[in-house]
């Protein structure tokens, strides 16, 4: 299977630079994976496709202001992006210019926060030990001087509004460096309406890392390796999903991160196990889904692991045909773009 099999043409003007306002006014393409039928709706119309007893699973991870700007003691500028915490006070980071960041190098972020490079990680990443010269909590300091790491294709600097808009309304567990973007379309009011109609809403946590968006640089899909990301499935979520599967009720994933969490936490029979774990599960066509029955997702980059995942779920030809129609009808693409519901 070739990476080029998942390519498509996207006019640059269809890349969303800002989110829809209100959130649930974004467009919704409904794709029926059994027939290939496509419907064009507004996101808040999703209630018409939900049924009492459905289990809607959301990712409650919260994006942290993980982008930091500092300088070396010699004066050179440094940009770091936190990837994951490896131990208290120490993080794996992406950094530039990385060639100057050898072990022992010190980075000064401001008068209170410094970082020391402690070693090398995979693919040019670094480990940095942070030191605070105050009694502030690290996350508190991060909120003061850090920046929301908007995806590079948005091609603009962060605005104050992004701190709220690039965050789901149910975000609560700090740790992600990218938003689980399928969840951005929900409002508090829409979630209440969905709950009131008898849909059961449950949460998992997967802290989205930059590896989710890592370009596939190999020609053969099967040779690509995903980065590990940490997840947690609460006991009540696992119990409700397992009960739903036994009773032939649908499990609907809000986003590819939920898909990867549930499929990673399930055994071969499809029973989901509660608890913490880490996953580098790479889903592409040929994968046999064990848990999810429907998927809410955004429109993803060509040749990406995300378009491969949705192709595995709905079929490559059907996905590429849906993307072609979405382009023709002027849908907005990527993180701040419109949504697709695969039923």
UniProtKB/TrEMBL annotation:
<dbReference type="InterPro" id="IPR042119">
    <property type="entry name" value="QueA_dom2"/>
</dbReference>
<comment type="subunit">
    <text>Monomer.</text>
</comment>
<keyword id="KW-0949">S-adenosyl-L-methionine</keyword>
<keyword id="KW-0671">Queuosine biosynthesis</keyword>
<keyword id="KW-0963">Cytoplasm</keyword>
<comment type="similarity">
    <text>Belongs to the QueA family.</text>
</comment>
<protein>
    <recommendedName>
        <fullName>S-adenosylmethionine:tRNA ribosyltransferase-isomerase</fullName>
        <ecNumber>2.4.99.17</ecNumber>
    </recommendedName>
</protein>
<comment type="pathway">
    <text>tRNA modification; tRNA-queuosine biosynthesis.</text>
</comment>
<dbReference type="InterPro" id="IPR042118">
    <property type="entry name" value="QueA_dom1"/>
</dbReference>
<dbReference type="InterPro" id="IPR003699">
    <property type="entry name" value="QueA"/>
</dbReference>
<keyword id="KW-0808">Transferase</keyword>
<dbReference type="InterPro" id="IPR036100">
    <property type="entry name" value="QueA_sf"/>
</dbReference>
<comment type="function">
    <text>Transfers and isomerizes the ribose moiety from AdoMet to the 7-aminomethyl group of 7-deazaguanine (preQ1-tRNA) to give epoxyqueuosine (oQ-tRNA).</text>
</comment>
<dbReference type="Pfam" id="PF02547">
    <property type="entry name" value="Queuosine_synth"/>
</dbReference>
């Amino acid at each position: 299977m070739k990476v080029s099999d998942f390519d498509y043409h996207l006019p640059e003007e269809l890349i969303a630079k800002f989110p829809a306002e209100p959130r649930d006014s974004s467009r919704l393409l409904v794709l029926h994976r059994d027939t290939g039928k496509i419907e064009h709706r507004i996101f808040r119309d999703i209630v018409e496709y939900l049924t009492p007893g459905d289990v809607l699973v959301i990712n409650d991870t919260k994006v942290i202001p993980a982008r930091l700007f500092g300088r070396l003691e010699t004066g050179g500028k440094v940009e770091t992006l936190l990837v994951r915490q490896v131990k208290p006070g120490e993080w794996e980071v992406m950094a530039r210019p990385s060639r100057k960041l050898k072990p022992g190098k010190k980075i000064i972020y401001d008068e209170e926060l410094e970082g020391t490079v402690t070693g090398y990680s995979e693919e040019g990443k670094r480990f940095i030990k942070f030191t605070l010269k105050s009694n502030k909590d690290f996350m508190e300091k991060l909120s003061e001087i850090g920046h929301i790491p908007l995806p590079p294709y948005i091609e603009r600097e962060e605005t104050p509004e992004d701190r709220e808009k690039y965050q789901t309304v149910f975000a609560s567990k700090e740790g992600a460096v990218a938003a689980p973007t399928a969840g951005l379309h929900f409002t508090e009011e829409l979630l209440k309406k969905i709950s009131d109609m008898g849909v059961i809403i449950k949460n998992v946590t997967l802290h989205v890392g930059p590896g989710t968006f890592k370009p596939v640089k190999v020609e053969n899909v099967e040779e690509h390796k995903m980065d590990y990301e940490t997840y947690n499935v609460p006991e009540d979520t696992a119990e409700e999903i397992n009960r739903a599967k036994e009773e032939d009720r649908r499990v609907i994933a809000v986003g590819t991160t939920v898909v990867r969490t549930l499929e990673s936490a399930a055994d071969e029979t499809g029973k989901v196990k509660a608890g913490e774990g880490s996953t580098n599960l790479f889903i592409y066509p040929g994968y046999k889904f064990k848990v999810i029955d429907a998927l809410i997702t955004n429109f993803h980059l060509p040749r990406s692991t995300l378009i491969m995942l949705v192709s595995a779920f709905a079929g490559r030809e059907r996905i590429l045909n849906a993307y072609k129609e979405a382009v023709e009808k002027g849908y907005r693409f990527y993180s701040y773009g419109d949504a697709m519901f695969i039923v």
